[in-house]
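REQUEST FORM: STRUCTURE PREDICTION
Request ID: SP-0412
Submitted by: Lab K.M.
Chain count: 1
Length (residues): 310
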Amino acid sequence: MRTGSLERKQTHARHRTFVTTIEWPTVLLAAVIYGAFGLLTWNYHALPWWLVLPLGGYLVAWHGSLQHEAVHDHPTSWPLVNEILVFPSLWLWLPFRSYREDHRQHHNTDSLTDPLEDPESYYIAAADWARFGAVTKTWLRASNSFAGRLILGPWRAVWRAWVSQGRKLLAGDRAAWLNWSLHAVGCGLVLFWVMGVCKIPFGSYLLFFVYPGISLTLMRSFLEHQARGPRGERTVVIEAEAPFALLFLNNNLHALHHAEPGQPWYQLPARYRTQKAALLSENGGYFYRGYRAVMRHHLFRAKEPVAYPL
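STATUS: Completed
RESULT:
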């Protein structure tokens, strides 16, 4: 299996034809996420903080995984319906349409991981790295460990996104303005419920829901890609423990997702069992047996240099 070429062909085909049926497991998943979010926020004041924080973070990150499904044209053949399904922005920080544009570019680029071509690359271009000061370099190195990515990563992710989006807005990009206008409505719906109905302070929502939700999402993306010569060796396979596999909707099997981006989340495990040998051969054995293994290797140790090595 040549995952690089197969990925590009299937991505393009997916965005032309879409699915032809409603994927009910994903619709049910959306109902579970919104229902659980409603229950947790409604009972926020009756629950201890140490319970709200992991549950709130899990639900926000889970909704982010649902957005990822919508980006890849799930669960229906109608893009507008899929967008409406994820319209409320539980994590507040990024418009869905902006995420969709960047993520599709990430899948379609021939220069996966290149910070000048791949909008989801966490590498820094060599020229930029050379002009950074000691404090910035220390910050970036610290965020390149597993613990650093979870603790410091949300700040970096939000800053990067807002700088990039801010440039588009200042340049008068009409699509960006529309994206943020729609996003403001989606955020307004969430904050009306959270602050107006459930009486949760805005700062508390950021602390107990948004920040840990982004952090858990960055846990998934921490090792997704590495800068290696062959394109097929740049994408990881992590056989995640059950809570994380469900949280990430099996996107931890990332090499398979890149090879077959049209597959819905609930079909990936079965596909992985039949394709495992070919996937690991193609990606050069870039593999971890669960996130406990990831933590053992990279908890306080940078996974690789920050400056782009290729």
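NOTES: The chain has 15 helices and two strands.
Reviewed by: T.R.
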